[in-house]
């Protein structure tokens, strides 16, 4: 940096202890800054500020520090007044030298620094919030000041900053187009880390800011609860009465937002529930009041959910527009300062798939355990709150038990609690088991669920020899209709979680299932579950699983019956059976579309040669990579297996199967010259030129077509586009 960026005559005037000369120096500094700003010399202005820092605020002499602060105020004043956009870019430069003085050893230097920051805040107003996080950090560092003058100045500064934050938030609310200098997200992240402190005066300082933020955001901090709630609850065990009461008031204020905001964001709900349960399980009597408040919060979530279920029932009875519901909607709209979509409103007031519903049902097993344990707590008030919450949870379960809601995930918790040595906990667990048995009358239900979970866990870790035995047990469980889909679900989840083992274990698991159960039902369920659960998030997993199913379909004797159904797709004479076979094909086709070679194999096996040909031709629409070429080569090898003898013989009936010939020639054209290319070329070389020429004629001698080829082809293209888009997004994330 050029030492002469600020002329020496200005430096000398600012050094002078004479008030007149200092004012003269400030006037010349103002002119210098104006000149630079008018010329757009932002870097030069920052160098001027840096020079003032080096020459003055970093000096060991108090009067020079103070003069430097005055000079920086002068620069800030002219920039904010005449060049506000430039001032915005210089906020950090203007405030940083003053902030560093807050750490000075001399009380007077710190006092002057606080007073200077106060003046800068008044000059820059909301603009100073561009460096708010750093100012807040320094404020926090000086919150233990003992000097009375500094404390008073700090209070004034804190009040002024809170005022500017309130103004900034209101401007954002009522003037959306105006830039907002206060970044709530950034500040909440900073606040989250600070709330871990156990220092009393720091906690008091933080509570003051949380209160202001909640007020100026119109009680709309719900989405930030996961960041600050645990810290506030921990203050409930604070020895200082003022802090403890402040935290209690704030926790109660926040709880009022639950009913209004609870259906805005499922993820936020789940994070809050997780925090509440964590507090419920903390040890030590100092956390008892926090535990009690956590139970009250959980009860509030359940109460609102029960209320939602009642509104849902009214809706079914045609009472959805009852006065109470209308008033509730109005309050919801009035209290919410965030943008609200129509879907959010419908989700909230429709009730069927609301975020709260998903949260409670997804968290049921996690909620139940701590509540059952707290039923035996040594403190009576906590026991009563736990009992009240437990009773409400049972009522909620009774209300949703006829809505296809599964409660099996709570069985391990209940079984664990049954052996608890504390009578209240064990007794309540027995009540829960009684309720479950009323819903699921099968006596084996609790035992099977426990065994099933352990078997699936074992399946993930076991070697090949043990897998066979595990699958025997799983298949026996699956023979009970109510457990069949559960077993398939859990197997797919295990394979999805352990995709490195999918290729090795997938074939073995699916083969064993097909050998012990109805292969058609196994395939239908697996393909349906793949679409239902994984189509939106993991198309690669679907593709790999479909490849495993295809390998079994064309090679294993257990799948002979399903192969026969597909082979007879176009030849079945009975109309009802033909429609059934067509339904089987289309069901498999939807999922097989996630693997190009598998869907072509399915078409060839079913003699749907025209559809297969159109799919092959569609490869011209995408970039064919090495992976696809490898799959095509594998398909050529598959066509040489005994299962496709019928297809190879049909090559002799080229007039009857022109699209078969086109399929094979299409595959050969896609391949580079190599072993697979040569295999197919040798197979086709006996086709004469006259036969090839006949393919160019408009002969349509294929068996009558019952499928909607264009519809199925469109379905394939749509799924392929979905796969490409999802893979592209995954690459971007990586």
UniProtKB/TrEMBL annotation:
Domain of life the protein comes from: Eukaryota
Keyword Transferase: no
Coiled-coil region list: 375-403, 552-582
InterPro entries linked to this entry: Vac14, VAC14_Fig4p-bd
Keywords attached to this entry: Coiled coil, Membrane, Repeat
GO biological process, alphabetically ordered: phosphatidylinositol biosynthetic process
The Vacuolar protein 14 C-terminal Fig4-binding domain, residue ranges: 501-687
Key word Coiled coil present: yes
GO cellular component: endosome membrane; PAS complex
Location of the protein in the cell: Endomembrane system
Cross-referenced Pfam families: Vac14_Fab1_bd, Vac14_Fig4_bd
Protein name: Vacuolar protein 14 C-terminal Fig4-binding domain-containing protein
Protein's organism: Paramecium sonneborni
